[in-house]
Design a protein that fits this description.
The protein is an alpha+beta fold. It folds into three domains: about 5-40 and about 205-265 and about 375-410, FAD/NAD(P)-binding domain; about 45-60 and about 265-365, Alpha-Beta Complex (Polyamine Oxidase, Chain A, domain 2), CATH 3.90.660; about 95-195. It has helices at about 15-25, 65-70, 105-110, 115-130, 135-140, 145-150, 155-170, 180-195, 205-210, 300-305, 330-345, 395-410; strands spanning about 5-10, 30-35, 45, 50-55, 60, 80, 85-90, 90-95, 195-200, 220, 225-230, 230-235, 240, 245-250, 265-275, 285-290, 295-300, 315-325, 350-365, 380, 385. Strands 8-7-16-17-18-15-19 form a seven-stranded mixed beta sheet, sandwiched between helices. Helix 1 links the parallel strand 1 (about 5-10) and strand 2. Helix 1 (about 15-25) packs parallel to helix 12 (about 395-410), helix 4 crosses helix 8 and helix 6 crosses helix 8. The longest helix has 16 residues, at about 115-130. Bound molecules: flavin-adenine dinucleotide. The site of flavin-adenine dinucleotide has 32 residues, from helix 1, strand 2, strand 19 and helix 12. GO terms for molecular function: oxidoreductase activity. This is Flavin-dependent amine oxidoreductase.
Length: about 400
């Protein structure tokens, strides 16, 4: 019997957390996912003996909803080192986070990533944000852009170009840093307090863990929803499912004519994977490329951080490369040349594994929020909205939005 059921449309992080919330209230929801597996933007493929995430993505251990719903020990996560390795045209140097690695303070103070003043300001800002709540990171900063905030805070052009732009450009998937400053402050707090980690079995393990812990939710994959009313959902194959309430945990505009034209725009990204026969030592750091002639924004050696990204016991290194912009057809050859230059690997060391072009990676949101009242998730009578686009572009937001929409639906 599907009558009177809560129906969730979309099996990404938002939909899965919505299911947890409904189960916790004693319900047995039905979750409909159009793909063959749940996960949404959290997907991992196994290719040629490697685990390849669909796009470079890290899990921030300090996210409030991650702490609430995920068992990081069971995910066997391993962490990147804080800071970054900056590659310029002629030089390269380590940039340590003074809050996370105080022993590196002296080295960091001398590194040419920014001025001494920049490093003092960054430490002060980090400490201030660590003492602030996530709500306080957002309050008053949702209209200002990240780049405006950074300039007004008194940082120099040197640290903007050598650290903030490549690092947060990679996080926000836009190099102009026009993302609201609220996100910059929140993400900086998360990095200062916690770690950027990878689950041993790839980023999709997050979704698999969420799905695996559900006990009374019926998950139907390969079921695309075509239309939604406040009484039923209609599947692509014309089947109708009566509903008690619906949680739309994906982009809602295709279902509701009243939302036409107000659909969310998305930022895209391109991620390439290479295998190097030579082992590359980058000390578990994210590499930031500060070189206008390079196509690469960041790269990292994944198996240094999570050795299980290599499925076979083989030597060499698995390298994930994120490009600055969506590339043209020669992108692989150009990126390979750039990577050889930045890593100083011999010409024959690299082989290309796979390219992921992800057109809908993060929502491009003018207005962001940390949270909302559950009642605000209601679109029409018995239809509730979830998904990262409802709050801000992050896994934390996706999970929180799922919980809030379910709490809203439970009041019907
Ligand atoms: C490359 C990349 C890097 C990222 N990096 C980070 C990061 O470092 N930190 C961070 O916090 N976040 C990051 N994110 C964002 C994070 O992954 C997302 O915010 C989160 O996964 C979104 O979850 P969601 O449930 O809102 O949406 P989605 O994951 O998009 O889930 C929506 C689901 O709905 C399904 N669906 C859609 N239409 C229908 C339909 N008609 N019928 C049935 N099902 C349907 C889809 O198939 C999908 O499974 C990154 C994302 C990408 C792609």
């Amino acid at each position: 019997m599907t009558q009177d059921k809560f129906v969730i449309v979309g099996g990404g992080a938002a939909g899965l957390v919505a299911a947890h919330t409904l189960e916790a209230a004693g319900h047995a929801p039905l979750l409909l996912e159009r793909e063959a597996e749940v996960g949404g933007r959290l997907r991992t493929d196994e290719v040629d003996g490697f685990r390849l995430d669909r796009g470079f993505q890290v899990l921030l251990s300090e996210y409030p909803e991650v702490k609430r719903y995920l068992d990081l020990d069971a995910l066997q996560v391993s962490a990147f080192r804080p800071g970054g390795h900056v590659h310029m045209r002629q030089q390269h140097f380590r940039f340590a986070d003074p809050l996370r690695e105080p022993a590196q303070l002296f080295r960091s103070a001398l590194s040419p990533v920014g001025t001494l003043n920049d490093k003092i300001r960054l430490a002060q800002l980090g400490l201030k944000l660590m003492r602030s709540t996530p709500e306080e990171c957002f309050r008053g900063y949702t209209q200002q852009t990240t780049i405006d905030f950074i300039w007004k805070y008194g940082f120099s052009e040197q640290i903007v170009e050598r650290f903030f732009r490549p690092f947060f450009g990679g996080v926000f998937l836009e190099q102009r840093l026009e993302t609201p400053a609220a996100m910059f402050r929140f993400v900086l707090k998360m990095f200062a307090q916690g770690s950027a980690v990878l689950p041993a079995e790839g980023i999709q393990a997050v979704a698999r863990q969420l799905a695996g812990k559900l006990q009374r939710t019926e998950i139907r994959t390969g079921h695309a929803v075509r239309s939604i009313t406040d009484r039923e959902v209609i599947l692509d194959d014309d089947r109708r499912i009566p509903t008690r309430a619906v949680i739309v945990a994906c982009a809602p505009d295709p279902f509701f004519p009243q939302l036409a034209g107000s659909g969310t725009e998305y930022k895209s990204t391109t991620n390439l994977y290479f295998y190097s026969t030579r082992r590359l030592k980058e000390n578990r750091l994210i590499n930031l490329v500060v070189d206008p002639t390079s196509t690469i924004n960041t790269f990292c050696v994944l198996d240094e951080v999570a050795p299980t990204y290599k499925l076979r016991n083989q030597g060499g290194s698995l390298i994930s490369v994120s490009l600055k912009e969506c590339p043209d057809t020669d992108s692989v050859a150009q990126a390979e040349q750039d990577l050889l230059r930045h890593t100083r690997l011999p010409n024959d060391a690299l082989s290309f594994l796979k390219q992921y072009d992800i057109p809908h990676a993060l929502p491009r949101l003018g207005a962001v929020a940390f949270s909302a009242d559950a009642t605000q998730t209601r679109l029409i009578d018995r239809v509730f909205l979830a998904g990262d686009q409802q709050l801000n572009g992050s896994l934390d937001a996706a999970m929180r939005s799922g919980r809030l929409a379910a709490e809203g639906a439970l009041r019907t």
